[in-house]
Design brief:
Length: 205
């Protein structure tokens, strides 16, 4: 399907949700970390902020859910993107929300439900640009094949760093997770804003 046009196809509420996701994610994990008596943002994971025994664990749990809703709304609103990419983004959002109700458990090194849904979330938020791109002279720059490929490469590199830190225990797993999570939250916003810079769209195909 060829794309002709740009932004007014993204409703205002989609713009709001895309901007809110990174803001709420960073604010949420910062607030949750500040409530912990002992927490190292470089060494400790975001998931530990929602684990049983964490102080006011509801803060991070609510953050996972609210940010997931933002991704879900953005996926629905991002009509200039190809349907496959939007569905992958929505699946990633669902995985992130299910992480909230399947927290890590103290004393359990590899809690299967948490790992499964976290993997779904990370995979969806990393790979969705690969299914969202379109061809055409009027395609917003962030939905062009080259931009989508670059986004996936960068997101995958950050996710690989996070995975390597988890496996090797090199002491920077928290930093790697935050870098990956921030990039994953920012890219939907970048795509939406690139669409907003375009005139009203038409589709053919």
């Amino acid at each position: 399907m060829a794309y002709r046009g740009g932004v007014r196809d993204v409703p205002w509420w989609g713009v709001v949700s895309s901007v809110a996701a990174p803001v709420l994610l960073i604010a949420g994990w910062t607030a949750a970390a500040s409530l912990q008596p002992y927490f190292n943002p470089v060494r400790d994971t975001v998931s530990s902020l929602a684990a049983p025994g964490a102080t006011d664990r509801w803060v991070m749990t609510a953050t996972f859910i609210v940010v997931g809703v933002c991704y879900l709304v953005t996926g629905i609103a991002l009509r200039p993107a190809s349907p496959a990419g939007r569905l992958i983004l929505i699946a990633g959002a669902a995985g992130g929300m299910l992480v909230a109700i399947n927290p890590v458990q103290p004393g359990v090194p590899y809690p299967v439900p948490h790992i499964v849904w976290a993997s779904v979330g990370f995979a969806g938020l990393t790979t969705w640009p690969a299914g969202a791109w379109r061809r055409g002279s009027a395609v917003p720059w962030a939905l062009k094949p080259a931009a989508a490929a670059a986004a996936v490469a960068i997101l995958f590199a950050l996710l690989f760093w996070f995975g390597t830190e988890l496996v090797l225990g090199a002491g920077q797993v928290g930093l790697a997770e935050r870098a990956a999570g921030t990039a994953e939250a920012l890219w939907p916003m970048v795509v939406v804003l690139s669409c907003v810079a375009r005139p009203a769209p038409r589709y053919a195909g």
